[in-house]
Amino acid sequence: MTQIYKRVAFIGLGLIASSMCHAMRRAGMASEIVGYTRSKETRDIAREIGLCDQVCDSAVEAAQDADLVVLCVPVGAMEAVAKEIGPVLKPGATLSDVGSVKRTVIDAVGPYVPEGVHFIPAHPLAGTEHSGPRSGFAELFDNRYTAIVPVDESDQQAVAELTMFWQSLGALTETMDPDHHDLVLAVTSHAPHLIAYTMVGVADDLRRVTDSEVIKYSATGFRDFTRIAASDPVMWRDVFLNNKEATLEILGRFTEELFALQRAIRQGDGDHLHDYFTRTRSIRRGIIEAGQDTDAPDFGRVKARQE
Amino acid sequence: MTQIYKRVAFIGLGLIASSMCHAMRRAGMASEIVGYTRSKETRDIAREIGLCDQVCDSAVEAAQDADLVVLCVPVGAMEAVAKEIGPVLKPGATLSDVGSVKRTVIDAVGPYVPEGVHFIPAHPLAGTEHSGPRSGFAELFDNRYTAIVPVDESDQQAVAELTMFWQSLGALTETMDPDHHDLVLAVTSHAPHLIAYTMVGVADDLRRVTDSEVIKYSATGFRDFTRIAASDPVMWRDVFLNNKEATLEILGRFTEELFALQRAIRQGDGDHLHDYFTRTRSIRRGIIEAGQDTDAPDFGRVKARQE
Description:
The structure is a homodimer. Chain A is an alpha/beta fold. Helices cover 50% and strands 11% of the residues of chain A. Chain A has 2 domains: 7-176, 3-Layer(aba) Sandwich (Rossmann fold), CATH 3.40.50; 180-268, Orthogonal Bundle (6-phosphogluconate dehydrogenase C-terminal fold). In chain A, strand 5 (94-97), helix 5 (103-109) and strand 6 (118-119) form a beta-alpha-beta unit. The radius of gyration of chain A is 21 Å and the shape is globular. The first copy, chain A, starts with 6 loop residues before the first strand and ends with a helix.
C-alpha cells in the first residue's frame, strides 16, 4: 500500500477516528498516526489500547507537522478546534473532517484555514450506535460511501489524494456539493434518527406499558429503532442544531404523510394503506441489490447469535 | 420430545407457519403436519419444498381430524376461515392463531368455535421482512416471546398444552390479556411499522433526492427503517385496520413528542435534545441485557457479510 500521507493526526478519538486507525493499519499504511481528544480519560484509554502511535496532550501538538489532519469532533466543536490548530497547520497539509453536516462545518472551519493548507471536508456514511475509542473496527467503512465535499478553492491533486486515502480504508467515494449533502443526509439519516429517538422516548414515557414489556417484546419492530436511538447524544444534538433547515423540511413532509396514513387508518381505507406499503418494499430491494444491507433473515442476527 | 398434538394443521403457509413447521421438525415432534393456503401457487411451493406432511386443497380438509389448528392468515381473513372450518373442528381440539392483533380476532373467530373446542389465541412476537412458505426458518422463535392470550372460557389444561407447544418451538411464553396485548403491540410494533413505512415513503417521494442516492447512502440510519417497511403489505394493512384505537393513540403521543423536538431544533434548544437522546440510550441497554438483540457492531451485519 502506498503511503499517501506521512503523518496523520486525528482530533477526537471516537468511533470514526478509531475505526480509521484500524482501517489504516489493516491497509498496511505506513503512516505515523497521532491523536488527541479533549478528555484525559479517553486519551488514557487510547494509550492503553495502543490506538495511535502517539496520543498527544494538545490538539496543537497533534496537528503540527501532520500531512493530514482529520477533525473527528462533534459538529458543534469544529470551530473551536479549527481556531486552535489553524496557526500551526503545515503548508501543503490537508485539513479534513468527518462531520455529519457539511455547510455549517465549512462556514465554521473555513475562516481558520491558512493559505497553502487544503481544506477538504468529508463525511463517511457509516456508523454504529457505539461511541468512544474502543468502539472502532477496521471494517466500518467497507463498501460504504464516503462523501468528499470539496469547497470552491480545493486543490484537485489534494482532493484526489484524500479520495484515494478513503478508498484505501475500504470506502466507496462520491463527490458531493455541501447543500445537497445536507439534504440527502437529512432524508437518509437525520430525520430517521430523530424519529427513532422520538418513538423510543414515547415508549419509555407510556405509563400503561412498562419498560420491561417494551424490552421483552421489542423483537417485533421496536428494536430496530432503539439501535439508532442509542447513538451518541452530543453528536446528534449538534447534527440537528447544524442541519436545522433540511431536517425540519423533511420532518414536515414526514408529518404530512403520517397524518394521511393516520386518516386512512381512522377511515378504514385499506386500499390506501396497502398501496403505500407495497411501494415502500421496492426501496428495500434496491438497498439489498446495492449491497448496502444483508438479506439474511432477521438482519443476520440469528447467525450472529449462533457464533 | 413428547408429542403434544398428534395432528397439527396450519391454515395459511407464510413466514410464521413455515417457521413453525421447521421448528416442530427441529424439536423432533412426531406430529403429522398438514397445511392449507388459499393460493394454489403457494400450495405448490409448499409441496415442492416438502413443508408439511400433506398440503390439502381446502381448509376444511386440513382442519378436520386435527388436534391443533393454527390460523396463520392475515387478521382480516380470520373470520372467513373460522366460519368455514368451525363445523368440522374435532371435539377436544385446540384452535389457535398467530395474529398480531388479539381483540378483533377474538371477536371475529369466537362465534364460530363449536362447544368442546378450545379456542386459545396466541401471538409469536417475532418476524422478519420476508413472507411466503420459503421464508421460514426453525430459529425464528428462539428466545423470543410468544403471547398466549386465553379467553374467559379457555380450559386450563389446553392452555398449558399450547404453552408447552410454543416452548418446544424455542419460544419464551407469557400469558396476556387481549386489550393489554394490543396496546403493548401498538407501542412495540404497530406504531414503529407505520412510522417506518411513512419515512420510507417520504424518501421515495422526494424529488430533490433520487432513489439511487437514498439507496447508496442508506447505511446512515435509513436502512434500519427499510427493513420493517418491507414487511407484508396485506398483513400490515389488516393490523392497522384491526388495532385502530391503540395505534392511533400511540401515534398521537408520537406526534406530540416529535413536535416538541422539532420546536427544540427550531429554537436551538440543545439541552432539551441532549437530555432526550441520553434517556433513550438506556432502553437500548435493557434490550441487549434481556438478550433481545445483539450488541455486535453494526447489528452483526459485518460478521454476516464475512461468512
